[in-house]
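Structure tokens please, single chain.
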Amino acid sequence: MKKIGLIGGMSWESSQLYYQIINTKVKEVLGGFHSAKCVMESVDFSEIEKLQHEDNWDALDQMMVDSAINLQNAKAEVIILCTNTMHLSSDSIIKHTNIPFLHIAEATGKKIQEKKLKKVLLLGTQFTMEKDFYKKILSDSFGIEVITPNQDDRASVHQIIYEELVLGKINPESKDTYLNIIDRSIQEGAEGVILGCTEIPLLIKQGDVNIPVFDTTSIHAESAVEFALSTF
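Here you go.
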């Protein structure tokens, strides 16, 4: 079993889910008393959030690289970043480390491709919805058309993430807001919805929606287990 390195803390609630999913999957596959070999480098999300909204991505890149190097020094054999938005720093992480990095959009694209879907809605922070780092991978590598909500709805999705979900607050009214946005996307031809923020699965589940839901937290965490248990 390979040792999984996790960059967490963005938020700690979703990082906790990563740890739970990874260990549940390892036990499911191997049985008995098995659990995952892993190490986590957890950052202070307050510092991250401040730099994000200052648009200081050079500083954010350096923080992610430092965390990744710490994991490499701790003898991790693969790195996963337990957040969607900070995959904006993935190129810097890959450039400055010598171990595999599992990208959340790549893992998600494979699952969408398995369902043979061609058009999906992407929900996440405004950074994730409005920048190309996520959509480009899904389009270029998997031929998937990605749509996002309108400007006002993007602002609502972002606000709920930062003012509620990352603080562990689950409000029924916010759930209704998300479901209404998803319903409008279905009218625009969306065949599935990507929960492209690791906190959104705290609010939206497959049973809430009539189209396939792609929980990026679960998809990414389980892909790490698949890699850790692989023989290559």
